[in-house]
């Protein structure tokens, strides 16, 4: 599109957006992991929550997006669809994996 994602996110946040849903179209549906560098750049540029989207293929990918360390994505939430639609994992399994990594999520109820 020729539009800088970081600059656009900043403009939208300053205009009153409550959060940024950041989808990497290059990674959407690939299950190859989120674009952590882009996530981190946007998260550091705005003062609203950033939701990672596009590329989540495993609990490790979600954990990396949520990681606030130097290599993480610094997102406040992560969206994943394909891994659940195709029953590659369950929400409960992902929650348990995130909890094991010290990421705060509501405990799974069962399953």
Features:
single chain, about 110 residues, mainly alpha, Rossmann fold, about 40% helix, globular
- Sheet with most strands: strand arrangement: 1-2-3
Number of strands: 3
**Structural class estimated from helices and strands:** mainly alpha
Radius of gyration: 14 Å
For the record, the CATH class is Alpha Beta
Count of domain modules: 1
- The CATH architecture is 3-Layer(aba) Sandwich
Task: Give the overall silhouette.
Answer: globular
- Biggest beta sheet summary: 3 strands, parallel
Instruction: Kindly report the CATH topology.
Output: Rossmann fold
Indicate the low-confidence ranges by residue numbers.
none
Summarize model confidence as the mean pLDDT. 94
From the N-terminal CA to the C-terminal CA, the straight-line distance is: 42 Å
